[in-house]
Amino acid sequence: VKGERIGEFEELVLLAVWALGEPVYGVPIQQYIEHATGRAVSMGAVYAGLERIEAKGLVRSESGEVTRQRGGKRKRLFTITSTGRRTLQELRGIRERLWRAIEAGR
Amino acid sequence: MMKKPRPPRLGRFFLRWQPLGDRREEVDADLLELFDLRVATRGRRYAAWRYCLDALSVWRLVRMADVSGSVRAVRPRRSWFDGVGQDVVFASRLFRREPALFSLTIGGMALAIAITTSVFSVVYPFAFPPPGVPEPRSTYRLSVARGSSSGAPWAYADYLRLQAAPKSFEPAAAVAPGLGVLEFGGDSTREVDTPRYIHAGIVSGNFFRVMGGRVSIGRPLLEDDDKAGAAQVMVLSDRLWQSEFAADPQVVGQRIHFGRELFTIVGVAARGFTGSDELGAAPACWISLTSYSESREREPKSEFDRRWLTVQVFTRLTRGNGQSAVEDEATAVAVALAAERGMVDATTRPRVELISFDEPRSDSSAGTFVFTVVIVIVGLIVVLTAANVANLLLASAAGRSREMAVRLTLGANRTRILRQLVTESLTLSLLGGAAGFVLTFWTAPLLARALQAPDALDVSPGFRVFAFALLVTTAVGLFAGLAPARHGRRGALLPALKDDSPLTTSVRSSRLRSTLVGMQAGASIVLLVCATLLTRSLVEVIRFDYGIDAAHLVQVNFDFRRSQTTPVIEAYLHTAQERLRQIPGVTGAALTLIAPFERGYAPQRIGKQSPRTVGAYLRGESFPVVLRHETSAEYFQTVGVRIVRGRSFTADEQRAGAPVAVISASAARQFWAGEDPIGSSLLRVWGDDDPADGRPRGLMRKPRGTRIIGVAAETITRLQSYDAPAIYLPLEPSNLHPVRLVVRTSGDPARYRAPIREALKAVDRDIEISTSLVSDGVQAQMQYPKVYAIIAGVFGSSTLVLAVIGLFGVTAFVVGQRRREMSVRLALGATGTDVVRLLVRDALRPVVIGMGCGLFLSLLAGHVIRGMLYGVSGHDPMSIVSAILILIAAATGAALGPARRALRINPSEMLKQS
User: Fold this and answer.
1) How far apart are alpha carbons B129 and B361 in whole angstroms?
2) Interface test with chain A among B33, B42, B51, B62, by most A beta carbons within 10 Å
3) Please, where are the H alpha helices in B98-178?
4) Which of B223, B682, B782, B901 is deepest in the core (most CB within 10 A)?
5) Cβ contacts (< 8 Å) between A58 and chain B: which residues?
6) pTM over 0.90
7) SS in 3 state form for B346-405?
8) What's the whole-number average pLDDT of chain B?
9) In this complex, which of B54, B68, B70 lies closest to A43 when CB atoms are compared?
10) Is B57 strand, coil or helix?
């Protein structure tokens, strides 16, 4: 993963982007994480997380089309990259191995 | 149709002020969408609350720009703060252009801030003292009002009746601390050379419980300690415990001397508890009313009557009982007591008022007055500082009119330029303020000591002081920045762009600058006059001829047991003096009630008392006083008091208590003016009989008809009363209990302390003695004039420095502006001296005018501080003239430097240029 680590919240953001499938913008991501974790998540934290994982090449973003919904204001749409998918799968692999070890030891 | 809810204004405010750059559009939209979503699902309030939080949290996005350095990193562009960094860079460039001038201004600023904040940190706790009890809001003092007078304390007997009466509240009593000043010694195993005098809180047994006083060690005073025959116990204040017992945790159970008695320490009160609503009245320890009364009654020849001891009565109300109900109850008791004495008519009918510890108390004492003066001075200094910064920026703004014009032409708006100027002056003042605040850590404790602030005062600079310094600094910066900004904005664009001819507004702005310089000169002269007066007074004090041999005197204090009767003590003292005179090098020993320069030695008031108000203080009304000595016959020779007329009293006269007296030469001058006082009655010194009690005022227990038998040379035995007349009376043998022995030695008196102790212990091992040097007392009293001179010197020189900086800046600027004029003059044949003289004269004009105005104030100031002066009048011409000379010299020096720069102009070059 280019030697870069991702934090717990960044992982959540990345998972949300993947889970939502389509190119998504900040608001659905924030809502998704808030519902999934049951804790209040600030917009600033979401932006910061997105900014970081984008810098690490795990997501890419583009300016959305101008639509009438938001008073003609643009969205920034995020899509997960293949690196992003691979990173999440590797993390999942590591975790599952560890959980198996825990259960075997019990 | 219902209006669509909008995000809260606060949240939008948060959002607007963050430099989001090209992300703003997106963030705005996201937050708005989220807001609408939340309004729909969770309600408006929740949505609004979360909107604000989100708007704040977006700050992380701004910070990200520096951390990740990503392409989309946000660059601040649209907010008001954009480019502040640039402004600061501009400001620093400006500072680099005139480094000397700017560092001087910053230095002056630091000085002014240090002084201002120090004064504030000392004055603030005075104005808003810490409450001293845990629940100030519900703790009250029961004050008795009769007719038009109010604030009276209670008689102890009345308090006991109040305590016994059925009522819904519980009163507690405490003696006003000033009354409980007693000599305090260490425990009997520890050698005490100098006795200390401390305020004891003399309180009822329930005092600690009623006031909510807790202890950190041991136990508080309890009801049982306030019963007849109870053990003598004492609770220490936290401060006394720290200072005298080095915070010893084993202090409980130790026994120490207090007054004549030995007290056992039972506890240490919690830090901060004073049990008093007066600052400076914080007791050092507490003992019970009964212990105090019993010890006073045991004194030989005691006339003490505890019933008429005045006490302050306090109570703490729980939520149940109302203030007015308690007032009514207490009033009923007070009225009943008054009725027993037949004092219930309209004017004497008492009324009890409850005064909360929360209410500010206004004491119109001289102390408050002095502090007001100091605050005014401080205000002056702040104005001077602001004037300096303003002056500097005014000069630089005028010089930069071209720069401003170019920027305006290129499209900078006026707000932008204004901000630039304010940023510059704020940077300047914040630099000075920061340096000044750091200085405060040293200056504040110094000032507190100099002003004799009570020990209980915590003056270390804290948050409040920091906030105050910041406030003053910002105010100075804003004021100083806005003044030139107003002028800078007036300028017409075109002429400024075409050439660098002086702006049309320069006349106006130079007038403003002259006024500022004049103000500085006026303030400087006031403080300089004070400084020179106090310095002269210090010189006078150092040159004082005390008229006694203070350098060779040793003072001995005794601690006689109360069982020792007068004849026993008399015999002891007689032998003691004999033995002391046998020590080689001891040239004399004499008895006196109070030794020269002894601490706590107060002159006696004579004549009618004048009211103690600020007005009276300003008018110069003070108490006529006389220093009263009661001595043995050998005193004159031992201490070195010369008799200039008549004779001193003999040992027989002293022992018999003969009605004779010796007066000082100044008393003779003052009361007998030209007549011969010998054989005259002493009554003339304290005026006629006081009709109230039929006794001559101040002449307690002295037989009438005391005749004057001699006139002694002038002496000084107390610096604060250096010019007070003195009288010498024979020491009554019955008055021997508090007596001091004064021993005169040849050579260093400190070397005699041990031999004196040995000789006295050889007479009676059981009598405790302590020795001290009279010269130490002199040194201690010398602190006052020294400290006064230092403080005034600091104030005076700092304003002088500020004025010099201001004048230097103005002259430098004027010289720059008048270069063309000067070159014309030089070309037409003026000599360099002519030009310099012209420039200096112009520069000094506002100084002289300001000084003239200031001199009137100086005369007033000299009058106000005359109580601090020794041997110098408040209008001492020499001091005033030297202050004027100092100011003129400094101002000339400040103007001369820049003026000489004008000589470096090459006239032909200069004229060719234009």
Assistant:
1) 10
2) B33
3) 99-127, 156-164
4) B682
5) none
6) no
7) CCCCEEEEEEECCCCCCCCCHHHHHHHHHHHHHHHHHHHHHHHHHHHHHHHHHHCHHHHH
8) 77
9) B54
10) helix
